[in-house]
Amino acid sequence: MNKKVAIAGAGITGLVSAFYLKKAGIDFRIFEKTDRCGGVIQSVSENGFIYETGPNTGTLSNIETTELFEDLSDYFELELADEKAEKRLILKNGKWEELPSGLISGITTPLFTAADKLRLLGEPFRKAGKNPSESVAELVIRRMGKSFLDYAVDPFVSGIYAGDPYYLVTKYALPKLYDLEQKYGSFIGGAIKKAREPKSEAEKKVTKKIFSAKGGLSEIINAIVKNTGKENIKFNADTEIQKKGNLFIIDDEEYTDVISTVNAGELPGLFPFLDKKILDDITSVKYAEVAEIAAGFNKWEGISLDAFGGLIPSKENKNVLGILFMSTLFSGRAPEEGALLTFFAGGTKKMHLARMSEEELLSILKPELADLLGLSDFKPDLLKIFYHKKAIAQYGADSKKRTDAVKHLQNEHKGLFLGGSIIDGVGMADRIKQAKKIVSKISE
Ligand SMILES: Cc1cc2nc3c(=O)[nH]c(=O)nc-3n(C[C@H](O)[C@H](O)[C@H](O)COP(=O)(O)OP(=O)(O)OC[C@H]3O[C@@H](n4cnc5c(N)ncnc54)[C@H](O)[C@@H]3O)c2cc1C
């Protein structure tokens, strides 16, 4: 039988898989539980604002993402963040401070203690760790010092995972940082050596720049769907996949391969034939619950928004995790003199906030936001709240067990690919890379 692939989920992982299957001339069909494409990605245009209800920005962090955008360049306009995005704010003692970007600002910043700044000089000479299960917090304290954990890494981790650096395991949660220490013996020395290594033309395009699309991230989804064909997606699908010999059966149709991109909790229902005990090692993955708030102002009268946004370290004991200055980063997000901001609350440390009613949540956040943004009163012209129950998978100490379980099930059932953010990274660029990797295995 010729290859025929079923894809569960029409989020970015499923759609990019479809895009590359089509390119390889392989027949496919997508099964999507809801009535729309994009999964957590969704941009909305309303009253002069464009806001996101899920992810807001991506990073050009791998070759696969830059190549996908080149492939799609006739179908959407990639927008890189304004250079003001280089400036990142961190709250310390209730005041916004700029995250240092060079030597001088690194010496003068009030974010880190003098002792830790001095200690950093010894970072290149410290021995590499040997524990593959070491948490992000343990690693950072060992190599850099507690104030770097509190005022750089904790807010950074909260920006990506809405998680806890003591829970997340570096090898899985921040693999590039882990590799830097393992391969080069040091973060500082490793970063310098890596920057000096010769790069291929494709690698040079991996600029780590922040991206979106003109009109919002949904435009990337629309571009992929235009290429892959909406007619190849079954919406409102209540899918249960059966096994017959080596083939997978959905709605009496046979498939040689199946790519799953769904959240861990969906797997038992989708694949009733998978060994429940092994599946438990996957479904037990913890997710951060997050409340996301988009706020639009027709006329901005608060603090200067000339930055990427502001992150709030756990030590500051606030309810808001971070603020993105979206209308600074990308064009057309707010009226001329206005502003569009996105806030996050909840995460693994303050999950109860993500479970509050809108009214309760706003009564807590409004005074805090007014204070953080230099407003006499927090009264936006547009205010939308989105709750994400399974926002971000947390790559903790159970990650090896989960990764092994995925490999085990894939070996047991040839043609099965368990993708999505249960493994391989939680960012959009990670999802694109994973989709391409799966399709290249199918095309072998
Ligand atoms: C609030 C939030 C903010 C984020 N911020 C960023 C960011 O700033 N930058 C970044 O790079 N990443 C960010 N991310 C992560 C990024 O958005 C995701 O990793 C990525 O979009 C996930 O894509 P996916 O296709 O793997 O999964 P999803 O988008 O979850 O898509 C899975 C699809 O499967 C469908 N589905 C579920 N169950 C079934 C079933 N049984 N059968 C069929 N279909 C099913 C779902 O309806 C959905 O459409 C954020 C995520 C969230 C939630």
Please report the total strand number as a whole number. Answer: 20
The top level CATH class name of the largest domain: Alpha Beta
CATH architecture field of the largest domain? 3-Layer(bba) Sandwich
- Indicate the structural class: alpha/beta
| Major beta sheet summary | 7 strands, mixed
CATH names the topology of the largest domain as FAD/NAD(P)-binding domain
What is the global morphology?
Answer: globular
Numbering strands along the chain, what is their spatial order in the largest sheet? 8-7-16-17-18-15-19
Number of helices: 17
Mean pLDDT over the residues: 97
Number of domains: 3
How far is it from the N-terminal to the C-terminal residue, by CA?
15 Å
**Cofactors, ions and other ligands in the entry:** flavin-adenine dinucleotide
Approximate helicity band: 25-40%
Low-confidence stretches: none
Percent in strands: 15-25%
Explain the overall architecture.
This protein is of the alpha/beta class and 444 residues long. It has three domains: 4-37 and 218-285 and 395-443, 3-Layer(bba) Sandwich (FAD/NAD(P)-binding domain), CATH 3.50.50.60; 112-200, protoporphyrinogen ix oxidase, domain 3, CATH 1.10.3110.10; 287-393, Protoporphyrinogen oxidase, mitochondrial, domain 2 (Polyamine Oxidase, Chain A, domain 2, Alpha-Beta Complex). Helices cover 36% and strands 21% of the residues. The chain is built from 17 helices and 20 strands. The chain has helices at residues 12-23, 63-71, 103-108, 114-120, 136-143, 146-161, 170-173, 175-184, 187-196, 201-204, 218-228, 267-270, 276-283, 326-329, 358-373, 399-412, 428-443, and strands at 4-8, 27-31, 43-46, 49-52, 58-59, 78-80, 88-92, 95-98, 210-213, 233-234, 242-244, 247-250, 253-255, 257-260, 287-297, 309-311, 320-324, 339-346, 382-393, 416-418. A seven-stranded mixed beta sheet has the order 8-7-16-17-18-15-19, with helices on both faces. The protein has a five-stranded parallel beta sheet with strand order 10-2-1-14-20. A three-stranded antiparallel beta sheet has the order 5-9-6. Helix 1 runs parallel beside helix 11, helix 5 runs antiparallel to helix 6 (146-161) and helix 8 crosses helix 9 (187-196). The longest helix is centred in the middle third of the chain and has 16 residues, at 146-161. Flavin-adenine dinucleotide binds at residues 8-14, 31-34, 39-41, 54-58, 237, 239, 261-262, 266, 270, 290, 292, 388, 391-392, 420-421, 426-428, 431.
